[in-house]
């Protein structure tokens, strides 16, 4: 089963398989299946074509995949343009939701190799 160019896994339950689409989580997948009157536990290979088309129509009404990614990128760009606090945090590649940065946030800051042990100094070998 393919929806919006995304292949839904056939061996997983439909409730889980729909989460392969960016923008659809577990709760939204359950809501879609409830509206289409489909059992959550059924697998996509056991689905009839009428139910498959009904699910496809419901998903096309929701903003998912490329449209959603574009909207998120636009929101972040707007924050950067107006130079608000969250926008500045995005510009500097720092956490923007209030997390601490003295420790942790290694993946966001990008310095994964400069971790220090106890009482040692970080030596950068180049």
TrEMBL record:
A GO biological process held by the record: translation
Keyword Cell membrane: no
One Pfam family named in its UniProt record: Ribosomal_S13
Gene Ontology MF: a single term: tRNA binding
Annotated keywords: Ribonucleoprotein, Ribosomal protein, RNA-binding, rRNA-binding, tRNA-binding
GO cellular component: cytosol; small ribosomal subunit
Biased composition (Basic residues): 99-112
Chain segments carrying region Disordered: 95-126
Entry keyword annotation includes Ribosomal protein: yes
PANTHER family, per the entry: 30S RIBOSOMAL PROTEIN S13/40S RIBOSOMAL PROTEIN S18, SMALL RIBOSOMAL SUBUNIT PROTEIN US13M
UniProt subunit comment: Part of the 30S ribosomal subunit. Forms a loose heterodimer with protein S19. Forms two bridges to the 50S subunit in the 70S ribosome.
Functional summary from the UniProt entry: Located at the top of the head of the 30S subunit, it contacts several helices of the 16S rRNA. In the 70S ribosome it contacts the 23S rRNA (bridge B1a) and protein L5 of the 50S subunit (bridge B1b), connecting the 2 subunits; these bridges are implicated in subunit movement. Contacts the tRNAs in the A and P-sites.
Family: Belongs to the universal ribosomal protein uS13 family.
Protein name per UniProt: Small ribosomal subunit protein uS13
Gene transcribed to yield this protein: rpsM
């Amino acid at each position: 089963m393919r929806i919006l160019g995304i292949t839904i896994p056939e061996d997983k339950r439909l409730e889980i398989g729909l989460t392969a689409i960016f923008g659809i989580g577990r709760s939204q997948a359950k809501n879609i299946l409830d509206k289409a009157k489909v059992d959550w536990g059924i697998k996509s290979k056991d689905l009839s074509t009428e139910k498959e088309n009904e699910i496809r129509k419901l998903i096309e009404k929701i903003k998912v995949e490329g449209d959603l990614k574009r909207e998120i990128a636009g929101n972040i760009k707007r924050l950067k343009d107006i130079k608000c606090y969250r926008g500045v945090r995005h510009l500097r590649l720092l956490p923007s939701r209030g997390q601490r940065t003295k420790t942790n946030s290694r993946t966001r800051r990008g310095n994964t190799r400069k971790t220090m042990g106890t009482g040692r100094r970080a030596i950068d070998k180049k």
